[in-house]
Structures are given as structure tokens and as C-alpha cells.
């Protein structure tokens, strides 16, 4: 993974750094707690943790405006927290309880929020890419100035439907940002084992779509790239591709024994590139916060996460007659 290049100190403020620190830490502590609840048998089925990738969503959300949309894969807890969804509702959904965003019927991979313009949560690899372009098509049609962020992985980026979507998105100048979260692996397959030309962002060139690679362990670099991409889309210039270089610290899902990489590889990135530690260093060396103040923030966030876990444990399982609801829409969708 590339070393950190972007000079950051000049383009930020104490408030912004503290916000990034809090938001990234919330995702990390939430995911650690989800891992524990899974281990205790309180979460079943699939559970894909986002630990290591926090700077991607936190940086990009900082470039959004009210009304912008987001859609992603099954590795979705961080996206929901970063766009302001309630940790209680997310945790309760993970544990399959009535208080969850999908009333306990969707689980980790299937949550939505109309209020926050979060369109899931998709278990089929790459499925969200054409759907996301569809959301952007609706925005263009309604001339509402909104931008859609479509997140997908390096594995998904090799799919045919991604190329088809690029073609149509550029043909129709759709206001969509394709965010490739390149965490170096698709399940147990390293990018170099599955990909002939590993610069995913360059593939837009075949369709005339601009793009760039971004250091995904540097939240300030991610935000800056997000702002550039958003400006491009809002100016009516069509789609943009951001390939964000990141890394997942945990297995693909909770059932992954992770035999395809060494512990040393993971440890080295954790020690040298961790995005939260980076912001922590900027806060401390810039004298924006003391060790004690940062400890206090960590304590507050653990409190929020513990409350979410308690809420999830106390919320009842959905009633049996809920099996027959939420299958078909009652009415045809109106303007989003
Ligand atoms: C169409 C389809 N094929 C295969 C799978 C099984 N599968 C689930 S995740 C995954 C790897 C995807 O990797 P990537 O796109 O890099 O995303 P990441 O998990 O790294 O976030 C595969 C093959 C699936 N869910 N859907
Ligand atoms: Mg991947």
C-alpha cells in the first residue's frame, strides 16, 4: 500500500479532526462490539466487519450534502453509522430484533433508511452498482442536484455489470460517484491473483469517466477527493471514479479463518497505517487535544456502543405474524 503523501495540517481544523476521530472511533468500537456479540451467539448468519476501512466512509460523508444518497454492499455497518443512522437500530438489526432498521428481518446485510437516503445493504456482490446508477438517474431526471455514492469492493470491480453501468452512467451524465473500496482482498483472493490491470480507477477511461486513486488510510485525503468528485457531479459533468486504497483488518466475515495472508501483514498495516491513529497523532502533535481528552472521547463512544448493545439485547424478537408483512410494497413508489 502506498505511503501517506498528502500534506494535511494546513487544510483542516481542530473541530474537523475531532469529528473525524469520533466518527471513525464509533465505527471501530461498534464493530468490535458486533464481533463480541457474534462470538456470544447473539448475532447469527453473516456478519462482515469494516474495521480498518473507517476513513473511507467518514472522509466521503464529510463531502456530502443533505439529500445525497449512498448504497453499498454487505460490509455496510460503517456506512450506516457514518451517514447518521442510529447505532441502536443497527445493532438491534444485527441481533435480529424488532427494534432494528428492518424490524429484525433483514440482518447485517439488509438495512435501509429513507430518512438518511441509505439504500442498503446488498448481499449480491456488485448488485448495488447498477441500482446506484438508477438512483442517480432519478436525481438527474428530477433535476434536484443530488449526488449518489455507490460503494463496492475490488472483487466487485471486476464484474461485467460494473462496466455496463459505467457506460450508461457516462452516456447519460449521471451524478454518481463510483467508490471502489480496494481493501486488497475479495474473500480469500488477493487483488493480484484475480486482476490483470490492478489500477481499477483507470478503467473508466474506456468510457471517458475521470477517476483517481486515493489513500484510504488518510481521512483528509479521502475528504478532499470526495469534494472534488462531488463538484464534478454537481456541475453536471457526469460520473467520477474514486478508487480508495484501504485494508480490512478482520476476516472477510466472522467465519473466515484468514489463511490467505500472514498475521505480520495485518500487524504491519495496523501499526504503520491505521487511519484512527493518524488522526490521533495529528490531534496530539498539533496540541489540539491531550491524551486524557482523547481517552474521554473513547469512553463516551464506548458508552454509546454499550447502550446500543443493551438496546439490542432487550428488544424482543419480531412476532411470528411479521413473517407476512413487508413482502410487497403497498403502493407504487412516488418521488423519493
Ligand atoms: C454474485 C455473487 N457472487 C459471489 C458471492 C460470494 N461473495 C461474497 S463477498 C465476495 C467477495 C467480494 O469482494 P470485494 O468486492 O472485494 O468486497 P469486500 O468483501 O472486500 O468488501 C464474494 C465472492 C456473492 N455474494 N455474490
Ligand atoms: Mg475487497
UniProtKB/TrEMBL annotation:
Q: What class of enzyme is it?
A: oxidoreductase
Known EC number: 1.2.4.1
Please give the coiled-coil regions recorded for this protein: 287-314
Q: Which cofactor does it need?
A: thiamine diphosphate
What superkingdom does the record give?
Bacteria
Ranges of residues in domain Dehydrogenase E1 component? 23-319
Q: Name one GO molecular function term.
A: pyruvate dehydrogenase (acetyl-transferring) activity
Going by the UniProt record, its keywords in alphabetical order are:
Coiled coil, Oxidoreductase, Pyruvate, Thiamine pyrophosphate
Q: Which catalytic reaction applies to this protein? A: N(6)-[(R)-lipoyl]-L-lysyl-[protein] + pyruvate + H(+) = N(6)-[(R)-S(8)-acetyldihydrolipoyl]-L-lysyl-[protein] + CO2
Any keyword Coiled coil?
A: yes
Q: Name one GO biological process term.
A: pyruvate decarboxylation to acetyl-CoA
Q: Which SUPFAM superfamilies match?
A: Thiamin diphosphate-binding fold (THDP-binding)
Summarize the subunit comment.
Heterodimer of an alpha and a beta chain.
NCBIfam families linked to this entry: PDH_E1_alph_y
What functional role does this protein have? The pyruvate dehydrogenase complex catalyzes the overall conversion of pyruvate to acetyl-CoA and CO(2). It contains multiple copies of three enzymatic components: pyruvate dehydrogenase (E1), dihydrolipoamide acetyltransferase (E2) and lipoamide dehydrogenase (E3).
Q: What is this protein called?
A: Pyruvate dehydrogenase E1 component subunit alpha
**Whose protein is this, by species?**
Rhodovulum adriaticum
